[in-house]
Structure formats: C-alpha cells, structure tokens
Amino acid sequence: MFAGTGSDVGKSLIAAAFCRILLQDGYHPAPFKAQNMALNSYATPEGLEIGRAQAVQAEAAGIPCHTDMNPLLLKPQSDHTSQVVLHGRPIGNRDAYDFWKPNQSTQNSLRISSSNSSQGSQCSQGSSSLDFRKEVCDAFDRLAARYQPIVMEGAGSISELNLRDHDLVNLPMARHADARVILVGDIDRGGVFASVYGSIALQTPEDRRMIRGIIINKFRGDMRLFDEGRRMLEEICGVPVLGVIPYFHHIHIEEEDSVSLARKSMQLSHGKVNVAVIMLKHLSNFTDFNVLERDPRLHLFYTNNVDDIRQADIIILPGSKSTLDDLYEMRRNGVAQAILRARREGATVLGICGGYQMMGREVCDPDHVEGDIDRLPGLGLLPVTTVMSGEKVTRQVTFNGSMHGYEIHIGETHPVDGAPSSPLNRLDDGRTDGYIADEKCMGTYIHGILDNPEFVDQLLRPYADRLAGGAQPFDYAAYKEEQYNLLADHVRRYVDMDRFYQMLTDDD
Fold this sequence. Notes:
The chain is an alpha/beta fold. The radius of gyration is 24 Å and the shape is globular.
C-alpha cells in the first residue's frame, strides 16, 4: 500500500508507476483503493462506475478496470453531501457529518438517504444499513484471488486521529490485506521531516509495524543535498527510505483531481487552432481533454473569460456533476452570452455530456434529481430537450464503426417536436447518440470521444486551410503507453528496487 502524509503527495502516480513496473517484471498486478472521492470517474467494460485513478492504474497494469479495484466511490454534490457509488452503482446520497459523526462507533453500518435521488431505488438497501467495511474487504479478496500483487492506494493522510475508527481505506484496509505499507511524503510543500515522522509516530504500535518503507516525492534540485536528510529520516523514524523521487515535467499521466486545471494555460496562442474548455464550477471528467493538450495542431486552455471565449476557434462545454447549477451560473456570469456570440461569429461549439444537455432548448428536473431548480432554458444551440430522470447510465460504447468511449450521465435528451433527426454518432448496438446541427455545432453523451483521432480530425475539418502542411494526427493510445513506460523508468531510477522486492518477501 502506498499511503500518504497528506492529500496530493503523489500516491496515485506512484501506484501507477509500480503497476507498470510489476507488469514489466513479469507479475500480474492490479490496483486497489477501497474508497475514493472524485468527480472524475470512468465506466468499466461492464458499464459500472469507478474512480478515474484506478482506471489509469489498471491501464498501467495492462488489464481491464473493474469495480473491485474501487468498490466505494464518493462523488461530491456540495460541501456537505456526496453521491455514494457502491460496486459501480449509485445507491443514494451521504451527509458528511452523519458519516463521520463521533458517536457512530464504527463505519461498518451506514444509512444512505435516497431523498432527491432517483438512484436510491436501484439498491434494495438504499434506505437500510450497509456494511461498507465488509463490502470493500470482500472486493479486495476477490481481486487478490485473480491478481498478484495488489498495488493498494491510501487516501489523504494516515494520521487523521479523529477519523481513525471509521477509516476504510488506509491502515485498517492494510491490516485486512496484510499489506506492506510505504509512506509517501511530499518534500515540495515543505515540512517533510515533521509530516513523515509525525505520520508514523501517531500510529498505534500495531499499525506502525506495517509501515515498511518511506518514499520522498517531488524533490527539486541537487539530490546530493538530501543525502544527510535521508539518513536522518531513517534514524528518527526507524523505517528505511526506499527512494527520493525528483519532480518531473516531462511525463504526462492523466490526473484525477481538477485542482491541476488552475495551473494549465489560460490564454490564446497564435498559429494553432485555439480550443477553449469552459471552466464550470462542477466540471467533471476533465480528462476528456488530455488528448487535445498533447495534439501539436491545437492550443487548449480553460477559461471563464468572456473575451477569450469569443476569440476561441473551438469552444467545448464539458461534463458537469450539476448541469442546472452550472447552466444558471453561466447565464449569470455572461459566459452563456459569450458562447452564443462566438457561435454567431463562426466558432465551433461542442458539448459533452452535461455540456450537451446545456446546448439544448431546456433542461428540466421535475423530480429534483440535481437540486431545487425545476427547469432552465438552455443555450438553444441544438433543437433538443433534456429531462433529468431515469436511472444513471454507465457503459462503454463503440460507435461509428471503430471508435470507443463511455457514458456516465443522468437524464435523457431528445429532439424537440418538429426537429429533424440528426444524430452525431451511431452505436454498434443500433442506438444513436447526440445531435449535430452542422459541422461547427454538435453535442454528445460520449466521454472519451476526443481520444479517437478520427473524431478530432472531423472537429478540425473546418480549419483544414490553417493546418495544411502542419502537424499530423496524434496517436493518443501510443502516447499513453509511452508515458507509463517513462513513469516506470523514472521511479525505477530513484527507488531501491532490490530493497522493495525484499520488503515484499520478508515475513517479519
């Protein structure tokens, strides 16, 4: 298990690196994280939902992703509540205080509220107690019977003492798995000695014995300057430092947390096709756009600046965890008006999932699936209407012959009365998806659609004169494989792999 001194210390990337390293070394590894909290999810081949990080780690391990790799997923809906996804299916909403309240003796039993959620009825236990600890442990046991070794990931900090009795994902899970725990500390944020030593010292004697190694992550500068620090850490902690991994900028792995978007480019670029992704408050599945960031023909940026939106060549409305709330905010802050003006002046507008819903005539929520808003007019760019009802759709799809993607959404979208049928995509099972008004205005429910070079070429066709003689189409699948191998090489170089493998086989 790769556990952390805090959030965003690099656990997910290090776990992905070891998934690829173990695969390269002849093992059959699989990732596991008992409980994840993220809006950026992914659909398994079975059409179920897991956190994106475990899907990435499975890809690094060379295997299909499965809900047993992330049996419990929490998707924040507000500062206080989250949608609970168990074994890939939504079962209702959770209030944070009720989940963590001090007088709840264990987290083994938890009541889930299905109010204001059409998904509560999908699970017969939606209004009864669920033994979450048993659910995640059983998922681990099933996974461990199929793969070896299991590369586990913790969550946040392992030293949140007030939450220890309720913890499903860190050291209690490691105890169940009899895992060797490697503590990851982030030296870039400062205070690495205190965070590493404190994280170990605050554990019970039993849990402290499970911590078998330390990795210092995100080091900047001359590595020799930390030689003494490495020795000192081992002395005060009584745990070996397996490696000090330098910060890197040359390797690109899909990230799960949208906090990284704030560091991405926010301005226009001359000489390329400029693609603006609207920065929604509840933006989800932002990894849809990773391929465009790497395509040399394009310059992708995230913005809410109305002037930049009007100057972009292509505007993408991304997925949203709260379509109506984001639609309301876009109307309030002038972004909706800027998009409409850009469209009138010749820009391309593409909507994906929630963004597709916003492009229609209206979005209705009569059952209050998302909140208190009953109905809002959409942007009116497509002659469709959406109703937020029915079961949540999660499935992988093949479309237009050989393209691939996945759907994760609530709601059904149909053409309004009198509108011609004009689907954007035809699925291999005979269904249709999305709507295309013309080559510069279209919407789809399919996440990952931009990972298909054929679709990106279609999107860029109106700009062919600008790209004539320029860069060639981008092979994203080959690029991702190269990045996993680069990540594995980077970690191998700075981690004592002999010591790592010895740690895995030691019985004491």
